[in-house]
Amino acid sequence: MSRKHLIAFFLAVLVLVPTLVMSGDLGLFFNPAGILLVMGGTVLGVYLAFPREVLLGCWRQVRHLNRWRVREHQELRELFVRLTRLRRLEGDRALEAAAQQTGNPFLALGVALVVDNRPRGEIRDRLEQEFDFFLSRREAERAVLNLMGRLAPAFGLAGTVVGLIRMLHALKDPGSVASGMSVALLTTFYGIMVANLMVLPLERKLKERNRAEAEEMTIITEGIMGLAADDNGAAMDARLSSYRLARGDGQAEPAAEDGQAKGGKPWTGALKGVRNLSLHLTATSRSAENGR
Fold first, then answer.
1. Rounded to the nearest 5°, which phi and psi values hold at 69?
2. Is 20 part of a structural domain of the chain?
3. Comparing 18-22, 77-81, 182-186, which segment has the lowest mean pLDDT?
């Protein structure tokens, strides 16, 4: 969990606890059975819905959420200009070593394909395949949190129904009705708090991370194709600058919203704009390559 989320969580606790204390006996808001039903039911639901590898991947993503870093457009542009000049001065071995030192497996894969003198069409197809696989895996991991955010309130409501059944069963004792009703509503309170205070903010953060990584991989793909085309430093800079201009025309965001509205796969809505942009740049680059 990131530092920002920890701070937000503790601030929420500082707001909620005094509120509960001022409203009366704090013990009234503690129901072990309700907590067990909400947390246990939510965990069991995602365990049944996803394979073990996806669950472990989601746990790793949440644990390392504050460590991820995506290179900005300007940084990537300067990196590929340096790689282009390094290749011209010192050759392919130096280029491959420099790519390994970046610590980016996607970039290292692309450079390895270039060094092996693979055809440009094959390089692009391989990178796009890796791109799609990576995003699919990331979105499957994010879907775990999305499902948890929907299951927690549902199990809270289920706990409330169970409490109401018990309350109605003891309806002969009017004094137990009010206390039974308050206990029944606690599980709904737990479900709402778990979903909106813990799970859904993390899910939104992972969604933003996936979008940023998709943009980074799109720029890297164009940079790799520039290396495959043996672009010089100026040509590489112009190639990657065109991506920046395409992003600035405001066309990507509406495309993402349209994809979400049409009810496609979970990741096509959030990342369709980036993907469409990548396909547009693919067509442009291939046209330029055929014209040479």
1. -145, 125
2. no
3. 18-22
Angle at alpha carbon of residue 180, lines to 176 and 185, rounded to 5°: 160
Write the Ramachandran bin of 236: left for phi over 0, alpha for psi from -120 to 50, otherwise beta. Answer: alpha
Closest CA to 194 of 158, 154, 160: 154
Q: What is the DSSP letter of 103?
A: T
CB 83 within 8 A of CB 98: yes
**What pLDDT sits at residue 249?**
38
Q: Range of 54's domain?
A: 3-13+31-291
62 in Cβ contact with 205 (< 8 Å): no
Residue that the structure tokens 């990131």 belong to? 2
pLDDT tens-digit readout, 180-220: 677 778 889 899 989 988 899 889 988 988 888 888 899 99
| Structure confidence by residue, pLDDT tens digits, 216-244 | 899 999 999 989 988 888 888 888 887 65
203: exposed, middle or buried (Cβ count in 10 Å: 0-12, 13-18, 19+): buried
124 located within any domain: yes
90 within 8 A of 67, measured Cβ to Cβ: no
The total of structural domains in the chain comes to: 1
Q: Report the Cα 161 to chain-centroid distance in Å.
A: 34
